[in-house]
Amino acid sequence: MDALSDAEVKQFEKKANEVRQTIIEMLVAAGSGHTAGPLGMADIFTALYFRVLRHDAKNPEWPERDRLILSNGHIAPVLYAVMAHAGYFPVEECLTLRKFGSRLQGHPERERLSGLETTSGPLGSGLSQAAGMAYASRVNGDKNRIYCAMSDGEHDCGNLWEAAMFAGANRLSNLTGIVDRNNIQIDGYTESIMPLEPFREKYESFGWHVLEVDGHNIPQFIQACGEAAAIYEKPTVIIAHTIPGKGIREIERDYRWHGKPPHQDEAKRFLAELRTLQGKIVSEHE
Amino acid sequence: MPNTDQYLKADIFDSPDQAATREGFGKGLVEAADADERIVALCADLTESTRMEAFAKKYPQRYIEVGVAEQNLAALASGFAAYGKIPFITSYATFSPGRNNEQIRTTISLNNVPVKIVGSHAGVSVGPDGATHQALEDIALMRVQPNMTVVSPCDAEEARKATLAAAKWNGPVYIRLAREKTPIMTTAETPFEIGKANLVWQGKTLPQTVIFATGPLVHNALLAAQALEKEGLAVNVVNVHTIKPLDKETIVREARAAGAVVTVEEHQIAGGLGSAIAELLAQECPVPQEFVGVRDLFGQSGTPKELIEHYGLGVSHIVDAVKKVLQRKTS
Fold first, then answer.
1. Residue of B39, B76, B107, B170 to mutate, interface with A, max A Cβ within 10 Å
2. What start-end ranges are recorded for coiled-coil regions in this protein (chain A) (predicted)?
């Protein structure tokens, strides 16, 4: 993947900021849902849908498309927001999140929304599905890539390591795992609940190529995806170090924001913070 | 007498040929794969035991060894299916759909992708391995999941046909198999259609009871029908190979005609075939019903014959159940 120009980087950052605003708006409207994870993955999902993935919003069933499996389905707001901004459905529909009759279920359901690759929420099973797709793609001789976005907390699940072992053993080099290493889970910090470190070494010992990036550095993440595509011997996992709640100071790094939405008054503050780029510019929306 | 429309084997009452339903699955899988290149097979370290070795030998590129990892087995298959393949996954039923039940629920049933789950070693007739390996709750686990179809073949030939039918069925399917060799009752000509129960025995006169049986115990139901006929009691026997979707038309018609029902299965009474039929008949045609099945107990080690008798699944138990339900009907 070609390196980004400074102007392009600015474009991506602007888009990610719009995605964050949509996330806050949809969570307020929903009145429930997860805040920290979606905000923390906004940069990566923006990079995926606007640069990395080969996909076509107008033809979601395109057989040659890359597949993105969202394993930790609870960060669905970031997926929905990015998909809407990428043209899969109107951005206004994001406000139906978690409402009766909505295509945007609390956790993603493939059969309800075209463009979703799977149904997810229960943790630890996404990498298995992605590995199945990667294997099937290889059997077919297809040239696409399979991506699997995971949380760090879901690495507590045995199923995930079964999949990691399988992908390593079968050298599924068309598979890229992306781990949101934000260090929080529902009950607290990952290293106090069930330590994952040494995390890199765990994946390496399972036969994976491991890259670590700053999950808010869009050019660095895109470059890592390019490197993953160039590794022919192994699957690659990109451990993306992220700040949960990134973009809103009150939420950043606070695990209590894992599973709750902002109230109306909080949202007003948060949106102002996003729209002014943390006070750097005068908002047009005040 | 055997229903001639069913083309059953002539020797079903005197030392018929025996084969395990898992054998029929193994044959059916190769036939299905010959006809459809989308079929792949995944196994969790039980290739020989679940009779996948012929497939693995013929189609090594389409055979995937997963190791002892049933949760991965199910979710991997979901990925294969979402990518356009038709995966068959095999293990023992206690592990799949036992251990991996949530993965099946979320990534296969709710996701609604055409994974075919094959659970072998169902029932107490697994024998010496004991309770840990004798699945008695798998029908219950599978039939409560929306989108899932549940098939429990009565013999190896029907298992072969069920495998072929499952390959063509547009959705997830669970096929329940047994370890032990059991009598072959059906022939290549015997009709098989998912969701269509087979009337295999007709009483010489108006039936007083109808026996609904599933799996290899259909043979015990036939032996019971023959014994009852000698005592002058007419019954019908229906092979309910598909537990979901239930053949409502046939079951209600037979229950209405007989006015009394006995259900027979090598499974917990709770949640199995008998429960499914009771749920239906309570609404459509309430009649007295007796349940031949496992009464809220785990299995144990023993020979298959010992265990079938111990858990009350033998021919005499079916005969007794018929007499009991007849008493309830007339009292």
1. B76
2. none
